Request: fold
Amino acid sequence: MGAPMQIDFRVSAKCNFALNIEGVYEDGYHRLDMCNASVGIWDELTLRISDDPSGSTHPVILCRMDGRAQDERNSAYRAAELYCKKFALPGAEIIIRKGIPFCAGLGGSSADAAGVLRALNDRLRLASEEELSELALKCGADVPYMLYGGFARVRGKGELVERFSPKNHCAMVILRSGGVLTAQAYALFDRNPNSDLQMSLDDVVSAVKDGKWGALIRCAGNALRPGAEQLCEGVSRNLRLLREFGAVYADMSGSGSAVFGIFESLGRAEAVARACRGRADYVCACMTLDEGYQLVHSSD
Reply:
């Protein structure tokens, strides 16, 4: 076995400007239509792997998150296992230092999985873009998008990703109180799919491209929010708080419980975040990003 390579990188959270559910596929996956952006909240990861093919169908994956051993229930573990099995690699060691809150709808688990796949393939170049996207989708609906992150419209099961560049970025305050399990939020939607939310993802994407953040009030929404509000009272409470502080637009990200408010400047967002401390479990002011993956260091 060759000397292990070490790759240090970080992956960002994502925020959904809008999330619509257009139906359910026969295999149970939901048919999604979303407008996403990466935001400046990070998990930091270290990946160690040998590039010597072993021929083994059972790679050894070691994964620790904030010092605690992980198994196949961890998305980064599954991503490494899938990649190593496909290309007969002996295994990998992953160390995760969390900065993205759990059960928040900010895509932390998906970001970790995407980051592992991206780091492996950027270095080893074994998978085509199509193969990498297929592996990503096996790890979760958000993972194909989060291979690169940035601004994108995401459709289908999550595999149809149309990236775009906006005229400008926006400042956000993100609040989280309590947590929402994704499966529970989708289950509530499935039981009551009818919603008063009126969304036009075409208009959402146009507004985001043009930096017309206030226009989102007329066209954006989140189909999972009514269910999440039943599961977690912090969703409604934190949305009211952001609106009271004058957010240009505010809604829930993903399946919750995190909510975001868009403000006219980072300075204003930071001031609102200071005022919100102690009123929510998690408070952060941040900016949107052009990409959700950053290589920190790579060595043989």
Q: What stands out?
A: The radius of gyration is 19 Å. The chain has a mean pLDDT of 94. The first helix runs from residue 75 to 86.
